[in-house]
């Protein structure tokens, strides 16, 4: 289960997380490891893809302090994913360490699922930023087309 107070990254996704950041002279589209993790968790949640972490990255990126996510306002995503997954308001309890572990665990697994999606989408790509933009553009267009197929309100006058 997740370590309290830190968000971990699977060892097999660590290199991808590093490649997606612009820190240390990198050319990735994200500023920090935490930004990558938040994006990946949202992507994993959108596709309902939760993947257990397996072996944890001990080095870069090492587990990221939860306070960092909170300082950027991203702790709300951690809480939303947890309450959506558990359907239990107690999951939001700030006084219970077990609930914090549960929230972090859910967030980590969605992030790992999202990183798996990104790994597949970015395979063979040179410019990650461009490929991610294309991927997001396709996602938006595909969603709009699906919505239109089932949107019968256009027949109402």
Automatic annotation (TrEMBL):
Query: Which organism encodes this protein?
Result: Nostoc commune NIES-4072
Q: NCBIfam families in the record, alphabetically?
A: dnd_assoc_4
Q: What is this protein called?
A: Dnd system-associated protein 4
